[in-house]
Specification:
Shape: rod-shaped
Number of helices: 2
Strand content: under 5%
Structural class: mainly alpha
Number of strands: 0
Radius of gyration: 33 Å
Distance between the termini: 108 Å
Order of helices and strands: HH
Largest sheet: none
Helix content: over 70%
Length: about 80
């Protein structure tokens, strides 16, 4: 009796699955596309996180670089004004 019920249950499941095959295929395709997009986003985030320490170092050096540039600019301006 139990095997008979199991058989009918599996048959009903298969029938429901077969009758929704286009929707199932569409859902599967959408799921795969979403997975690819998520993997691409994850790869981009990993690239950003990998490069972040170098960018932080550059950002910390920026004020000193600006100060050095201002000093050189001032020296050049003084040289141009005085001729030496």
């Amino acid at each position: 009796m139990y095997n008979c019920i199991g058989f009918f249950f599996r048959t009903l499941q298969r029938t429901a699955y077969d009758s929704q095959a286009p929707e199932t295929t569409k859902a599967t395709n959408q799921s795969e596309a979403a997975d690819l997009m998520a993997q691409s986003a994850l790869n981009s985030i990993e690239d950003i996180l990998h490069d972040l320490p170098r960018q932080v170092d550059q950002a910390r050096k920026l004020p000193r670089d600006v100060e050095d540039t201002n000093k050189v600019t001032s020296q050049v301006a003084t040289f141009v004004k005085t001729g030496f």
